[in-house]
Amino acid sequence: MFLAWREIKQNKLRFALITAVLMLVSFLVFFLSGLASGLAGLNREAVDKWDADSIYLTEESDKSLIQSMMTAEKADEVKGDKTAVLAELNLIADNGEAKNGVALFGIRPDEFIMPKVTEGKPFQDEFEVVASDYLKDEGFSVGDELSLSSTDEKLTITGFTDSARFNAAPVLYMDLGDFQKVRFGPAADQMGEGEEAVNAIVVKGGSGETVPDELERIDSETFIENLPGYTEQSLTLTLMIYFLFVISAAVVAIFLYVLTVQKIGMFGVMKAQGISSGYLAWSVIAQTFILAVIGVLIGFVLTVGTGQFLPNAVPVTFDYGMMAIYGAVLVAVAVLGALVSVWTIVKIDPLEAISG
Amino acid sequence: MTEHVLQLNEVTKTFGSGRTEVQALKETTLEVARGEVIAIIGPSGSGKSTLLTIAGGLQTPTAGDVRIAGERITDLNEKKRSRVRLEHVGFILQASNLVPFLTVSEQLRLLDKVKKGNMSPDERDGLLEELGIEELVKKYPGDLSGGERQRVAIAKSLYSNPSLLLADEPTASLDSDRAFEVMGLLKSAAVKKDAATIVVTHDTRLTDYVDKVYKMVDGELRLQEKRKAERLPDERTDFLEPEGDRNGV
């Protein structure tokens, strides 16, 4: 650490450049992780909010919610601490001033997936809905009457709830019975208790050993991964982050290697004087660690600072736990990059340095 | 009985093989005692540096034995030879062997980091004062003149109390006055610290400071002159005396 820190102090500009590169890479990694987290949230918020263990879909649906269709009475065959039926439609909602794509959830208000209302009141009367509060930013408010694409029914917003987006669309929650009328029109009046068409049964607790005929049980994560585009999007961003780790290691390796090559004579003389390769190698590793930690910390502060000024339309959500992990990985790969220099130092022949 | 710090016994060094074989060092036997200063002169390519680097354990001979402070280093691996160098050998090189980003005092602190048994703070201060560099302790090598850098290099090589000092053209980059001054300091230090010293040099004027002069010709080492060194610096060298002497023991 003695050599490492003194060299940094004496060559501030040179090491500031390396730190700046690490800072920019970490900024990009943190920002991409925030973007990945935010985009994931767009898809999965409403599902995470259920805090469910498993979801039952029809076997023939191939794990697609929209393709799964069953009657609500199937829920009676499912064993679990808590069960809830879910019907879903994708629509365009229009309050006369703004239009927005929405996911309309038909649920039973006494079941566990009923959301907590953060503003206004829960739906009670016919065709009332509780909406995702993201719709507030799009120009929707409590009391708005919504006309829907593909149906003549009108819905009224009675309240808002937070963290309620599904497959990148804000969710509207409404009573399952009313939902049937939106979906099937007057034909819904013919449906008896338990005959409502639903897309899934959401379960919390229970062993999940009993799976009714024609149904398939999947866990929440699998359900989310099968949302259209979700896995592709997540993998793309994750791959970009992983590539940045590799790039980071390569950049640090190249920088430090160039610096080490410039100091081969000095290291050689030091080795000739009996200073061990281990001491010199440890010095380079300590130096890299110091630079990486400083770069990553500045990158972190810069990312969080930038996040304060981003418009809401940019789906960035900072997961500080994940950022800490990515930061640690960046420091680790930087140290890994320094191993090239360590190897160079180990291979330095003091005799050549003396002769030179 | 004379204690020889450095013993080379029938040492040879050959590079290449077959038609490209070059014998850089022919069978050489050399002993350097404590407090003895010898000079090796000779033209470029004669094998002087090869001898010096073998003596310092920087390379191994093709044949023969090398002992430093009684320890046979010929068959040691680089790591063990590195330890021997750290404990027993001080190098003074033609080019400055200073770390560019450390101040003069930090150059010595670095040695404290890697080795125990260096000079005490008082001894260090005395050494720096004697070498006339006590005012330079906060300066970096880049701020020093060539002569000052070599004096710092001497201080650095002596700081770890070596029993063997190896100097490769230590005055090559200095003007005559500075060269004599540095050589005088080196001689004083070697004598007072009781270190066996080998100086490889082109400058025959500097041989006035040494006890023996060897000439290297085509890899063959010949004793050219044996005498009591004529020129001894008259500066105070109390700091270099063994501790027991200073305490009147």
TrEMBL record, chain A:
<feature type="transmembrane region" description="Helical">
    <location>
        <begin position="324"/>
        <end position="346"/>
    </location>
</feature>
<keyword id="KW-0472">Membrane</keyword>
<dbReference type="InterPro" id="IPR003838">
    <property type="entry name" value="ABC3_permease_C"/>
</dbReference>
<dbReference type="Pfam" id="PF02687">
    <property type="entry name" value="FtsX"/>
</dbReference>
<comment type="function">
    <text>Part of the ABC transporter complex hrt involved in hemin import. Responsible for the translocation of the substrate across the membrane.</text>
</comment>
<feature type="transmembrane region" description="Helical">
    <location>
        <begin position="239"/>
        <end position="259"/>
    </location>
</feature>
<keyword id="KW-1003">Cell membrane</keyword>
<keyword id="KW-0813">Transport</keyword>
<protein>
    <recommendedName>
        <fullName>Putative hemin transport system permease protein HrtB</fullName>
    </recommendedName>
</protein>
<keyword id="KW-0812">Transmembrane</keyword>
<dbReference type="InterPro" id="IPR051125">
    <property type="entry name" value="ABC-4/HrtB_transporter"/>
</dbReference>
<feature type="transmembrane region" description="Helical">
    <location>
        <begin position="279"/>
        <end position="304"/>
    </location>
</feature>
<feature type="domain" description="ABC3 transporter permease C-terminal">
    <location>
        <begin position="239"/>
        <end position="350"/>
    </location>
</feature>
<keyword id="KW-1133">Transmembrane helix</keyword>
<comment type="subunit">
    <text>The complex is composed of two ATP-binding proteins (HrtA), two transmembrane proteins (HrtB) and a solute-binding protein.</text>
</comment>
<comment type="similarity">
    <text>Belongs to the ABC-4 integral membrane protein family. HrtB subfamily.</text>
</comment>
UniProtKB/TrEMBL annotation, chain B:
<feature type="domain" description="ABC transporter">
    <location>
        <begin position="6"/>
        <end position="243"/>
    </location>
</feature>
<dbReference type="InterPro" id="IPR027417">
    <property type="entry name" value="P-loop_NTPase"/>
</dbReference>
<comment type="function">
    <text>Part of the ABC transporter complex hrt involved in hemin import. Responsible for energy coupling to the transport system.</text>
</comment>
<protein>
    <recommendedName>
        <fullName>Putative hemin import ATP-binding protein HrtA</fullName>
    </recommendedName>
</protein>
<dbReference type="InterPro" id="IPR017911">
    <property type="entry name" value="MacB-like_ATP-bd"/>
</dbReference>
<dbReference type="Pfam" id="PF00005">
    <property type="entry name" value="ABC_tran"/>
</dbReference>
<keyword id="KW-0813">Transport</keyword>
<dbReference type="InterPro" id="IPR003593">
    <property type="entry name" value="AAA+_ATPase"/>
</dbReference>
<dbReference type="GO" id="GO:0005524">
    <property type="term" value="F:ATP binding"/>
</dbReference>
<keyword id="KW-1003">Cell membrane</keyword>
<keyword id="KW-0547">Nucleotide-binding</keyword>
<comment type="subunit">
    <text>The complex is composed of two ATP-binding proteins (HrtA), two transmembrane proteins (HrtB) and a solute-binding protein.</text>
</comment>
<dbReference type="InterPro" id="IPR003439">
    <property type="entry name" value="ABC_transporter-like_ATP-bd"/>
</dbReference>
<keyword id="KW-0067">ATP-binding</keyword>
<dbReference type="InterPro" id="IPR017871">
    <property type="entry name" value="ABC_transporter-like_CS"/>
</dbReference>
<keyword id="KW-0472">Membrane</keyword>
<dbReference type="InterPro" id="IPR015854">
    <property type="entry name" value="ABC_transpr_LolD-like"/>
</dbReference>
<comment type="similarity">
    <text>Belongs to the ABC transporter superfamily. HrtA family.</text>
</comment>
